[in-house]
């Protein structure tokens, strides 16, 4: 493969999410509970240590 596996992963606007009380995440988790008896976050460390390279940078 010639592209990183996460090239199409979304970039979260953490400041806006914090300002909104993380409502998007809360709704996402509530919806998951509507669909499934249980779920897990497989790679929380990856989520907590999230970073991005700005477009056009190397």
From TrEMBL:
Q: Which InterPro entries match?
A: GH (IPR017853), Glyco_hydro_77 (IPR003385)
Residue spans making up a coiled coil are none
Query: In the record, which residues are listed under signal peptide?
Result: none
Q: State the Gene Ontology terms under molecular function.
A: 4-alpha-glucanotransferase activity
EC numbers for this chain: 2.4.1.25
Q: Name the PANTHER family for this protein.
A: 4-ALPHA-GLUCANOTRANSFERASE DPE1, CHLOROPLASTIC/AMYLOPLASTIC (PTHR32438), 4-ALPHA-GLUCANOTRANSFERASE DPE1, CHLOROPLASTIC_AMYLOPLASTIC (PTHR32438:SF5)
Protein name from the UniProt record: 4-alpha-glucanotransferase
* Assigned keywords, A-Z: Carbohydrate metabolism, Glycosyltransferase, Transferase
From which source organism is this entry?
A: Taxus chinensis (Chinese yew)
Which GO BP terms, alphabetically? carbohydrate metabolic process
Query: What family, per the record?
Result: Belongs to the disproportionating enzyme family.
Which top-rank group of organisms is this from? Eukaryota
